[in-house]
Amino acid sequence: MCGIAGWVDYERDLTLERDVLQTMTATMKLRGPDDEGGWLAPRAGLGHRRLAIIDLEGGRQPMIADEGGAPVAVLIYTGEVYNFRELRGELEARGHRFKTHSDTEVVLRAYLEWGAGFPRRLNGMFAFALWDVRAEELLLVRDRLGIKPLFYQQIGSAVLFGSEPKAILANPLASPVVDVGGLRELLAFVKTPGAAVFRDMREVRPGHVVHVRRDGISERRYWALEARPHEDDLQATIRTVRGLLEDTVARQLISDVPLCSLLSGGLDSSAVTALAQRALRAEGAGPVRSFSVEFAGHAEHFTPDALRSTQDTPYVAEVARHVGSDHAGIVLSAAQLADPEVRAAVLRARDVPIAFGDMDASLYLLFRAIRERSTVALSGESADEVFGGYLWFHDPETVAAETFPWIAMRRKIRGASAASQLLAPALLAQIDLPGYVAARYREALAEVPPLPGEDGAERRMREISYLHLTRFLPILLDRKDRMSMATGLEVRVPFCDHRLVEYVFNAPWSMKTFDGREKSLLRAASEDLLPRSVLDRRKSPYPSTQDPAYSERLRGQLAGLLARKDAPVLPLLDMARARAVASESGGAVDEILRSSMHQVLLLNDWLTRYRIDLAL
């Protein structure tokens, strides 16, 4: 896993801009702490920071393909291609000769052999930039589900790009301007494909290739979810799901550095951990390392609610014993979760102030602790989107709502969004979040591929699945990527294998819930791997602390912020409401209001540290 940055300009000699390219590349240091490289030509500059995972000695980048002693293509790449060994064999049979054992060189050679359509042949998570020296053309490519991020911005004759916005913003041509559209995207909790918070910046859409040529920029889709008839019966479907999972997990165990799994005690992460343990044992290796997050005092503070009915810790311990993993729990305190330095690290990782509250802080701290012992981690992320695991998939009122299901469920349970709690009413009226969400919902719904003859209920559940895979999952993948790469940890997501996603997307909803539960197919495919208690456990989302001390710390920090007359966030706030919240004392604060306090603190840090120009 790595970080990339670069610059293409058809009217400027970029060989004179080495210092700027190095500055852009340096912003990716946390994503790639092991090595740095750069390549410059008159029209293109490519920078790379490397986190060495495969072929530690031979995988340096930028990687150059030569013909007759002259460069013909240059690649900077982040991610992993899990079928690179098969592709290498195919390319060798076609006459290609390899100098390294890395998947990076396979990607480079695949382009030379198959041209711009080659991403369809790749199985993995990736984002890369490839400069064709002969054609003076740049390709920006992103994996099918959008696991790895990639941003770009055209400014006059220049096109800047990077794994994260900070790489682009480090170029003096770029400015951190955020207009009404960007603020809407920031606050709406809907990931609009291609949109970025910063004005004029774009994100390469999942499953797309962006072509940058002298005559302009164009975008081409190489993959999308398609509706197909599902021909397999239930037992064949369960066997296929199991086979795909076994193959995917085995492929994603390939690593030349220490590897582990993230274990929450839920069905998803437990299945991945068990499959990883089996695969390692079959190779004479193991046991698999596993890690979980725990909160100091959580047992005494935990109160079941509509989303989290059980604690993770007892289930984590049972799974670790059952599969025989080498397990460690990472215990976090309220002081750590509310630490302003941790909040600053989260903001630097994200570049934008997303209101995940303590869940971002805990994920960052968990990954930082894991990185001391492992460099690669397997995650159960995306199983809920693929198999239909969330509570709102199974709530008729939410399913029928004419908006995104996760937003409908939040309204039903919490009654409001974090953004609506402490921001000024005039600002909320100006940005009109309900109108923005409604427009994005209509756009997303219009994309859903139809299956002729599908009845109303099945058609609606296909829509719900599509909304999650294209609008909700990218939010979580982005979060996991940013928090992990900020600590130099590569997180792999087996449930995002596009073969599995395509297959399960087209399984009927009646089959996905054949036992009357959520994630029926995954449960059946994992039945021989896990304890009965875990198989029967109700879905519980990523944990959030319930320690009142965390809320009290946030209140104190909010009060301190409100007392500062020069804080840039103050004009954006409902000051009376904010002062009332900050002055309260004692008892827990509900999760929405707590997230609101956290977001206000983040917003102020963002406006200050990034010198944001709010063009409202």
Question: What does it look like?
Answer:
This protein is α/β, with parallel strands linked by helices and 616 residues long. It contains 26 helices and 19 strands. Helix 12 packs across helix 19 and helix 24 (548-562) packs across helix 26 (591-609). The protein is globular and about 75 Å long. The two termini are 37 Å apart. The relative contact order is 0.12. The mean pLDDT is 94.
Give the structure's gist in a few sentences.
Residues 2-215 form the Glutamine amidotransferase type-2 domain. The chain is an alpha/beta fold.
Q: Descriptors for this entry?
A:
616 residues, six-stranded antiparallel sheet, alpha/beta, globular, nucleotide-binding, Asn_synth_AEB
Radius of gyration, whole Å? 24 Å
User: What is the tally of helical segments?
Assistant: 26
The share of residues in helices is: 40-55%
> Major sheet: order of its strands?
2-3-1-9-8-11
Secondary structure topology:
Layout: E1 2-9, H1 18-26, E2 35-40, E3 44-50, E4 63-67, E5 70-81, H2 84-93, H3 103-114, E6 124-132, E7 137-142, E8 151-155, E9 158-162, H4 165-169, E10 177-179, H5 180-187, E11 201-203, E12 208-213, E13 216-221, H6 234-251, E14 259-262, H7 267-282, E15 289-295, H8 298-301, H9 313-323, E16 326-332, H10 334-337, H11 340-350, H12 358-371, E17 376-378, H13 383-387, H14 396-400, H15 405-413, H16 419-422, H17 425-431, H18 433-447, H19 456-485, E18 490-492, H20 498-505, H21 509-512, H22 520-525, H23 532-536, H24 548-562, H25 575-583, H26 591-609, E19 613-615
Parallel strand pairs: 10-19, 14-15, 14-17, 15-16, 17-18
Antiparallel strand pairs: 1-3, 1-9, 2-3, 4-5, 5-6, 6-7, 7-12, 8-9, 8-11, 12-13
Helix pairs in contact: 2-3, 6-7, 11-12, 12-19, 24-25, 24-26
